[in-house]
């Protein structure tokens, strides 16, 4: 009630809630006046489980199904003030291992994506702050500065010259992914089609390590192949007949395709259950 009343006064105010029970997502959006909710116990916890606890990547299908109809009102994230940094020794130990999760979080739906300060540079969060201690988190209790932000700031010049090459490389990936989210209409406005059901136990596809889906808007079609494995893999993706009907895609033996991350061009065949071959990079 308070959030609804405040939003009537402050029209540009956005209310974001932390609700740690998926069953309460809809009531809090429908009746409590929140604009967005952190999808912590659904998508975030599943992505953490894939990286740290051996969860199958196929569980991501259940994540979007759980919030189907309200997915555009989820605030996706990989780091925040409560959670351990991806690059910390307590999580992945390598910020690049968060890239597959970044693509899933940012590109599955039309919802907003939150980037926590320094995440885009691979902030370690391994400082031994006074109250917080060395726990892989960036303290919210101590007067402190963050190493990667300090480097990016460079004494107020904000030119990033103090960042390492690894920081800059990771930052370029984050820039690329997040720019695509705003420039590619298929991500920004398009419909979503999960390809996993047609690829379980597939030829040259491991549903426990890879996740694949499509996005479409008007004449634009995007294929996503996300590799959670620690090594480079060659995968074969089946596109079922239902995908062509649902997305209204013409069946053609020749499509000109562009890898949006690298700019590489190739010709692909797009027919039902005619496998698309793709080399999926490792984190």
Helix and strand topology:
Blueprint: H1 2-9, E1 16-17, H2 25-31, E2 36-38, H3 40-52, H4 60-66, E3 74-77, H5 99-107, E4 113-114, H6 147-153, H7 165-183, H8 185-188, E5 191-194, E6 210-217, E7 220-227, E8 233-237, H9 241-247, E9 252-258, E10 265-270, E11 276-280
Parallel strand pairs: 1-2, 2-3, 3-4
Antiparallel strand pairs: 5-6, 6-7, 8-11, 9-10
Kindly summarize this structure in a few lines.
This protein is an alpha/beta fold.
What this model shows, in words?
There is one protein chain. Strand 1, helix 2 (25-31) and strand 2 (36-38) form a beta-alpha-beta unit. With 283 residues, this protein is an alpha/beta fold. It is globular and about 60 Å long. The protein has helices at residues 2-9, 25-31, 40-52, 60-66, 99-107, 147-153, 165-183, 185-188, 241-247; strands at residues 16-17, 36-38, 74-77, 113-114, 191-194, 210-217, 220-227, 233-237, 252-258, 265-270, 276-280. The protein is built from 9 helices and 11 strands.
Key features?
single chain, 283 residues, alpha/beta, four-stranded parallel sheet, three-stranded antiparallel sheet, 9 helices, 11 strands, 19% strand
């Amino acid at each position: 009630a308070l959030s609804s009343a405040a939003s009537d006064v402050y029209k540009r105010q956005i209310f974001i809630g932390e609700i740690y029970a998926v069953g309460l997502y809809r009531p809090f959006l429908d009746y409590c006046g929140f604009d967005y909710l952190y999808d912590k116990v659904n998508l975030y916890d599943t992505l953490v489980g894939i990286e740290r606890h051996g969860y199958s990547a196929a569980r991501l299908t259940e994540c979007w199904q759980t919030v189907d109809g309200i997915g555009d009102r989820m605030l996706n994230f990989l780091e925040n003030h409560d959670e351990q940094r991806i690059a910390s020794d307590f999580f992945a130990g390598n910020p690049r291992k968060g890239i597959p999760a970044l693509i899933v979080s940012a590109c599955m739906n039309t919802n907003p994506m939150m980037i926590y300060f320094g995440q885009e540079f691979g902030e370690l969060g391994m400082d031994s702050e006074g109250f917080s201690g060395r726990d892989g988190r960036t303290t919210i209790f101590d007067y402190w500065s963050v190493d990667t932000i300090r480097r990016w700031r460079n004494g107020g010049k904000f030119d990033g010259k103090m960042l390492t090459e690894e920081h800059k490389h990771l930052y370029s990936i984050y820039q690329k992914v997040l720019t695509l989210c705003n420039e590619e209409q298929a991500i920004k406005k398009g419909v979503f089609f999960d390809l996993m059901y047609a690829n379980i136990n597939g030829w040259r596809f491991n549903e426990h390590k890879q996740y694949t889906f499509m996005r479409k808007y008007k004449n634009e079609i995007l294929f996503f192949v996300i590799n959670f494995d620690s090594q480079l893999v060659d995968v074969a993706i089946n596109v079922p007949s239902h995908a062509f009907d649902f997305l209204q895609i013409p069946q053609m033996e020749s499509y000109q395709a562009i890898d949006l991350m690298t700019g590489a061009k190739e010709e692909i065949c797009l027919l039902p259950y005619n496998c698309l071959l793709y080399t999926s990079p490792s984190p």
